Amino acid sequence: xxxxxxxxxxxxxxxxxxxxxxxxxxxxxxxxxxxxxxxxxxxxxxxxxxxxxxxxxxxxxxxxxxxxxxxxxxxxxxxxxxxxxxxxxxxxxxxxxxxxxxxxxxxxxxxxxxxxxxxxxxxxxxxxxxxxxxxxxxxxxxxxxxxxxxxxxxxxxxxxxxxxxxxxxxxxxxxxxxxxxxxxxxxxxxxxxxxxxxxxxxxxxxxxxxxxxxxxxxxxxxxxxxxxxxxxxxxxxxxxxxxxxxxxxxxxxxxxxxxxxxxxxxxxxxxxxxxxxxxxxxxxxxxxxxxxxxxxxxxxxxxxxxxxxxxxxxxxxxxxxxxxxxxxxxxxxxxxxxxxxxxxxxxxxxxxxxxxxxxxxxxxxxxxxxxxxxxxxxxxxxxxxxxxxxxxxxxxxxxxxxxxxxxxxxxxxxxxxxxxxxxxxxxxxxxxxxxxxxxxxxxxxxxxxxxxxxxxxxxxxxxxxxxxxxxxxxxxxxxxxxxxxxxxxxxxxxxxxxxxxxxxxxxxxxxxxxxxxxxxxxxxxxxxxxxxxxxxxxxxxxxxxxxxxxxxxxxxxxxxxxxxxxxxxxxxxxxxx
Amino acid sequence: xxxxxxxxxxxxxxxxxxxxxxxxxxxxxxxxxxxxxxxxxxxxxxxxxxxxxxxxxxxxxxxxxxxxxxxxxxxxxxxxxxxxxxxxxxxxxxxxxxxxxxxxxxxxxxxxxxxxxxxxxxxxxxxxxxxxxxxxxxxxxxxxxxxxxxxxxxxxxxxxxxxxxxxxxxxxxxxxxxxxxxxxxxxxxxxxxxxxxxxxxxxxxxxxxxxxxxxxxxxxxxxxxxxxxxxxxxxxxxxxxxxxxxxxxxxxxxxxxxxxxxxx
Lengths: 577, 264
Hints:
The complex is a heterodimer.
Chain A: E1 5-13, E2 19-28, E3 33-37, H1 44-51, E4 59-64, E5 67-71, H2 80-87, E6 90-94, H3 106-116, H4 121-134, H5 150-162, E7 168-172, H6 180-195, E8 199-203, H7 207-210, E9 215-220, E10 223-228, H8 230-235, H9 237-242, H10 249-256, H11 265-279, E11 303-310, E12 319-326, E13 331-335, H12 342-349, E14 357-362, E15 365-366, H13 370-379, E16 380-383, H14 396-406, H15 411-424, H16 440-452, E17 458-462, H17 470-485, E18 489-493, H18 497-501, E19 505-510, E20 513-518, H19 520-523, H20 529-534, H21 541-548, H22 558-569, H23 571-576
Parallel strand pairs in A: 3-8, 3-9, 6-7, 7-8, 13-18, 13-19, 16-17, 17-18
Antiparallel strand pairs in A: 1-2, 1-4, 4-5, 9-10, 11-12, 11-14, 14-15, 19-20
Chain B: H1 16-19, H2 22-35, H3 42-58, H4 63-70, H5 74-87, E1 93-97, E2 100-103, H6 104-130, H7 133-149, H8 154-184, H9 194-225, H10 244-263
């Protein structure tokens, strides 16, 4: 069989009339690693469902694993029996790990698929053990999946799909809800599968992940608009930007340095290292090419935690003797791996939980008394993880008005605040739409508008960009910048070190304690990298490059890295001046 | 406002009770629960409690766990006691105040009828504590299989039961997240007049319903992708098999049941 799946002129419309796929022709070859990119709503997930045999299109032909499952030229376009046969050879892993695990014990969940295929018990034992070993979850064979981290659950889901021994496996944004470490583990598993010759279709929002593919296709409004090797696809820099995607870091760097364009990090590193070697002797030692910005001393903190400890039930401490003060109007990033206590800290700061020991003060008011806590809910806005899951009203406007109305404001004031909030998140004109009809990114913005309409002086966000596409992430960054300019104190938990480096201050949590606390430049440097690595964290991409290249400076952004490399690569010019 | 419930809390241990066939455990548990309604004397009650304590010890379950499973019901049992205390009118009158009257019979009913329910609650708790939800599902699947022969969806019912056990913790987490979100937006959950409270719950329910539908959608995708077609062609990784110990357990339960019934 020279093709695992073949779509020819496939068109699919949803009942609402929305076009999901438009004249898509695609061949997936055996042993190939195909990556599908595109912004939210471009039809990626629909394509995944068609490739898995879970969704039949309206027009065109679909051949899966040699079965002609759909042919709009036939009297009966859909061949249900063929679909059933084909599905047995296709594995699927999708976004939300919670919804893919159907039983309450890890190894039994992996066995679920093979049981459905009628595999003999002895053979199931072999497969369960093999696949759990492959995804490094053997130690958790008897664990309760609801107690695992998102990344671990997703690995169980992968093992469950692999245990069915599929001929092709479709990954539909498997890492979009995971932290960095979880995502890296998924990529490792995928790399191992590819090395073993598995056929992989990978849908993702992360451009760096696409670099590992043999072939990349980019969808826009249901059409394939770019196709080729990663190098070819990302070569269309303008088009990539217009499609709401972003170039990989290496591609941007090579262009800024005016080196031969490449998106291959290793090749670029070699090219730079090659030019550095010649000039290294002239490099000023330990010079910091980038000016150092100090935090301005704060007067009275907006939020303060004093020796705070907290635990849920009898389990180990979720927070252990944490002290910090956050200056009004500053932006603070809290980083740490899953289970380090970040979310608990946010809940305490937002007065949703009261510490077991120590005190949390918001604007000088302790969160201990219930009456004070109620008052604080208007001062401090809390955007939880996936806030769109908490939408409930019939219209966008009603949902946004929920907070200000509860504050007892006049109808005109509520209306004015809602308008301003919707304006800020760029959702003007959606007032009467149902929040459930919005796209995923818009739902997130609507939920955030609901918090902003309360005009909090402090806003606390738990991974606000998780699961968004590059354009959505960028929009959210702009919104936060605008809020920051209005003097609002911003505290956000993030998994993205590049985002963290943009804050005024970074707090690193590890095992329920504050491990590092300081300006991005103090927290992210050569000295702290080993400790950060041990805590399951990385450093900003620019710093990672500088350290790998052995540069004397420690840049945190692409601009700083370019400035630094310009100095290092062309010292001769600066001497002439 | 973190919600915690102790439903389906399996307690991992190596014991003869853990090793029993889940079908045997379910049948035995049901028998004990039915037997509760034949308990009318302190002697019968003592037998029931002693038997349950014996099983708790055999199953290596710490007493704390058993108490935890009874605790949520203490209020209901007390209420039941009160009803019995004032509504049973036969027997010798001990105390009266207006329409209220306590008699020898009502006093006896108050403590005996509440405590006998504890026997049934412990039996139910023991099943949940010593059986993983998956094994429990297997048991229901096997026991509902005759329904399939009649054309009723026996396997599907068992699957629904299994998914319910799997998703309860997820939905509880979600409900508590939604309640947090609304509290931090000034929602007045659990405050004010009863009407206010009910009204405050509506947004929570709507959001929870929306997210349940979302889960259901995803779940059907997952089940399809893993080729779940229900029933017939499925194999079982650990097929259920009744062994000597299982039959012995059932025999002991029969003896217990007959003793309770005849002793009354």
